[in-house]
Write a structure and sequence with these properties.
197 residues, 9 helices
Length: 197
């Protein structure tokens, strides 16, 4: 995947799917190599590019066509389209396309309602979760994803010394699990201690 990064084209749904799958895999990984970080940053940048305004308005027009009221004056329609353009200006075409398709799909219980700009913008943010997460991870420096340093294993003698220094008795002093409550004589440990005192 990293060799195909320069060719990733957000206009092709299959390539968007590949890019999102790569980001999701890298974000779930506990160890991310520097090359993977760079690849994730490149993919996130490519998938974050704002869409073409003409294409965005064409998509919005196609989305709203079933909901248009023919008696609404043209001037109001133009103002409404400006609102849509402002709301979706920073979003990529692929996310707008997916959000519009989702709105009309059976997965959306409100599909019979006319969408507002905020509805589609919100769905675009959902579609872009992996991209946003990758950008946040990149800003944070991918903290916690470096491979841990290889350390030499501790010898048994060194481990025993460390345990003694911490106040633990050596393993040869181990007589089995400690029992709490009644002992073999039927008395509790506190009764035996009182009798010894």
């Amino acid at each position: 995947m990293t060799t195909d990064l320069a060719a990733l084209d957000p206009r092709h749904p299959a390539e968007v799917d590949q890019g999102l799958a790569y980001l999701t895999r890298v974000l779930r990984s506990l160890r991310v190599a520097p090359a993977e970080r760079e690849a994730a940053a490149m993919i996130a940048a490519q998938l974050s590019r704002p869409g073409d305004p003409v294409r965005t308005m064409a998509r919005v027009g196609a989305l709203l066509t079933p909901y248009f009221d023919k008696e609404t004056p043209r001037a109001l329609r133009e103002i409404e389209m400006e609102d849509w353009a402002d709301a979706l200006a920073d979003l990529p075409d692929w996310a707008i396309e997916r959000a519009a398709k989702w709105w009309k799909s059976a997965d959306n219980p409100q599909r019979r309602k006319r969408p507002l700009e905020g509805d589609i913008a919100e769905r675009c943010r959902i579609e872009m979760r992996a991209v946003r997460a990758a950008r946040v991870r990149a800003r944070s420096g991918w903290a916690g994803t470096e491979a841990p340093e290889d350390r030499e294993r501790c010898s048994p003698e060194a481990a025993a010394r460390a345990m003694r220094a911490a106040g633990f008795s050596p393993a040869e002093d181990f007589t089995g699990p400690k029992r709490f409550g009644a002992t073999e004589t039927g008395q509790s440990a506190t009764d035996e201690q009182r009798g010894a005192a």
